[in-house]
Amino acid sequence: MRKKELALEVIARLKKEYPDADCTLEYDQAWKLLVSVRLAAQCTDARVNVVVEKLFAQYPDVASLAAAPAEDIERIVHPCGLGHSKARDISACMKILHEQYQDKVPDDFDALLKLPGVGRKSANLIMGDVFGRPAIVTDTHCIRLCNRIGLVDNIKEPQKVEMALWKIIPPEEGSDFCHRLVWHGRAVCTARTTPSCEKCCLRDLCRQNGVK
């Protein structure tokens, strides 16, 4: 099966399996997602969702978070790990949003990449979830599953996986497809335990099971 055909079949099956899959970071404003996705590096979304409740209660808007000392931010976000660097990036990012973008998150991919702590994964997440633009978020689940299934061939670098997927995933499907990979990667095709291949909706397509 050609990769484009495989991709369409995988998309269809994951849609059926996870019809309501969405971002597992909780947010109600774009700037909050920007903060949360920075905190999510090497941390679970579940923990981030708990930690940001206190952060956003104390600093309820871009202006107040931009004015907060980085040390105060660090004390709150410390449970997410890498507290010093994350707090520094959040502080610098909010200052730019406040001073250059009138407290708004820019809807331009290149502008997002210029913000402190924002890489391609984060920028794609913002573009897809906030602005409804075509996006492919190559997190660890996406990279692991796409290699296992055979959508990419032993590619581990996030940007290379992203570029390979752009060639085979319809643009309008990319964002939701990546969210569904996260859900599937947590529930079935796990990383730290033996994958539950016997209940996988992709079992007969998966290269991991000897399908070529």
Short description:
This protein has 212 residues and is mainly alpha-helical. Helices cover 56% and strands 0% of the residues.
Please give a structural write-up:
With 212 residues, the protein is mostly helical. The protein folds into 2 domains: 3-22 and 136-209, Endonuclease Iii, domain 2 (Orthogonal Bundle), CATH 1.10.1670; 30-129, Endonuclease III, domain 1, CATH 1.10.340.30. It is built from 11 helices and no strands. Helix 5 (70-77) crosses helix 6 (83-100). The N and C termini lie close together (8 Å). The mean pLDDT is 96.
Helix % is 55-70%
Number of helices: 11
Oligomerization:
single chain
* Shape type: elongated
Task: Write the CATH architecture name of the largest domain.
Answer: Orthogonal Bundle
Low-confidence stretches: none
Query: What is the CATH homology-level superfamily of the largest domain?
Result: Hypothetical protein, domain 2
User: What class would the helix/strand composition place it in?
Assistant: mainly alpha
SSE series: HHHHHHHHHHH
* First and last CA, distance: 8 Å
Number of beta-strand segments: 0
Main β sheet profile: none
How many domains, in number, for the residues? 2
Text of the CATH class of the largest domain: Mainly Alpha
Key terms:
Endonuclease III, domain 1; single chain; 11 helices; mainly alpha; 212 residues; Endonuclease Iii, domain 2
Present the secondary structure layout:
Layout: H1 3-17, H2 30-39, H3 45-58, H4 62-67, H5 70-77, H6 83-100, H7 109-113, H8 120-129, H9 140-149, H10 158-166, H11 174-187
Helix pairs in contact: 2-3, 2-6, 5-6, 9-11
